Amino acid sequence: MHFIFSDEVVLLFNFWNVHSPTGMALSVLVVLLMAVLYEGIKVGKVKLLYQALASLPTPTHQQQFIEETDGESIGSDLLPDSRTRLRWFLCHFGQSLIHVAQVVIGYFMMLAVMSYNTWIFLGVVLGSAVGYYLAYPLLSMA
Amino acid sequence: MDSSHHTGMSHMDHNTTVSHAHGGHDSMMMPMTFYFGFKNVELLFSGLVINTAGEMAGAFVAVFLLAMFYEGLKIARESLLRKSQVSIRYNSMPVPGPNGTILMETHKTVGQQMLSFPHLLQTVLHIIQVVISYFLMLIFMTYNGYLCIAVAAGAGTGYFLFSWKKAVVVDITEHCH
């Protein structure tokens, strides 16, 4: 098994059958966008967490969040409001869904590279580079 | 071939001669697209072949639990690392600030001793984490739809359950999960 330059590949699904240079260019573009999305999801997950923490009701309690290790659970005495607990639950559930999307896209990218097609591999690498370049400055933004 | 083979393996009639002649060489039969099925699914090890729906259900549960365990192991390693930070060094250095003033910028370094028990434990857990992550990759590589869904669902559930408490303690410098 080795990398080959070829215009024919079957990627991930039975219907994704590429025979022509145009199809290959389109497939490389799709894989590139998938890699950009993956990097974006990684940053988006962290920003969502920051937003959720920032929207908590009392800033003094937020300090305690940052300093405590894992002795207390979140619902013990810092969030007595059940509505806030529900909001936190929904936010965490949303984060878990984003995590599932991140895992699935990551595995799809791994399987795409496993096709051993050099163009697809270059698409994944370039997409990761572009995605990182675009997304990570957003991490340090407030 | 013989009746003895026929009574034992009724599922793999057309495979009997092949596997008997070549001793299990079947790298050409690896699927390269997603499919849903539970007949003759090889899972990681040569003796582990799924042939019935019941076995597939069992494999689904096992893979689900493995993915959940992987997420939990990640979180556990992080919290263990935080708890075992031994030395904290503060370095202060002057940097030019706005309006020509001199500000003191403080860098905080946390470290671990190399031969301490927490570091050895972290190393062992790291090896386990790497092995499990490769197993999950190989499971996803079987291209079996049920097993892939099990990996994704297990990862999501594990993240949901174990990151609940971890989400409370946020380290600003970590962003590569």
TrEMBL record, chain A:
InterPro entries, per the entry: Cop_transporter
Membrane topology: Multi-pass membrane protein
Alphabetical list of Pfam families matching this protein: Ctr
Stretches that traverse the bilayer: 20-38, 88-113, 119-139
GO MF annotation list: copper ion transmembrane transporter activity
Keywords, ordered alphabetically: Copper, Copper transport, Ion transport, Membrane, Transmembrane, Transmembrane helix, Transport
Compartment list: Late endosome membrane; Membrane
Origin: domain of life: Eukaryota
GO annotation, cellular component aspect: late endosome membrane
Repeat recorded as keyword: no
PANTHER family in the cross-refs: PROTEIN SLC31A2 (PTHR12483:SF8), SOLUTE CARRIER FAMILY 31 COPPER TRANSPORTERS (PTHR12483)
Family according to the record: Belongs to the copper transporter (Ctr) (TC 1.A.56) family. SLC31A subfamily.
Descriptive protein name: Copper transport protein
TrEMBL record, chain B:
Keyword Metal-binding set for record: no
InterPro entries linked to this entry: Cop_transporter
Main location: membrane
One function term, GO molecular function aspect: copper ion transmembrane transporter activity
Listed transmembrane segments: 56-73
GO terms under cellular component: apical plasma membrane; basolateral plasma membrane; early endosome membrane; late endosome membrane; recycling endosome membrane
Superkingdom: Eukaryota
Protein name: Copper transport protein
